[in-house]
Design goal:
The protein is α+β, with helices and mostly antiparallel strands. The protein has 1 helix and 5 strands. A 5-stranded mixed β-barrel has the order 1-2-3-5-4.
């Protein structure tokens, strides 16, 4: 092994140790870090559009802290389509969303208090 190869090998090993392991999934969360959803984990939003046939709602929302997502306007699938019957465009709401299978799913949506 020549000097250049040794330098590259040492540099590669050093970078591997120095970089965080953020790309690795956590397989079993620490039970003390798992918390039940609280009412303060609801996100404020405004209904922009409703698609009851496909079970979707477009929401302009604030930061979704549980998903580390900034505020924006986007389409969500609603787990329970019946929740869409009480909504109309312009309504202020509070909702809970999760990410499942690459989709953003609203698990609960209520009129804002």
């Amino acid at each position: 092994m020549n000097t250049t190869q040794r330098i590259l090998l040492i540099s590669t090993l050093a970078m591997g140790v120095a970089l965080p392991m953020a790309g690795h999934a956590q397989t079993s969360p620490n039970p003390s870090q798992v918390a039940a959803p609280a009412s303060d984990s609801m996100t404020d939003g405004e209904v922009k559009k409703i698609d009851p046939d496909n079970g979707k709602v477009t929401l302009k929302h604030g930061d979704i802290k549980s998903l580390d997502m900034p505020g924006m306007t986007m389409v969500f699938t609603v787990r329970d389509k019946d929740q869409l019957t009480k909504l109309k465009p312009g309504d202020k709401v509070q909702f809970m969303a999760v990410q499942e299978g690459g989709k953003m799913i609203v698990t609960d949506i209520q009129p804002a208090r």
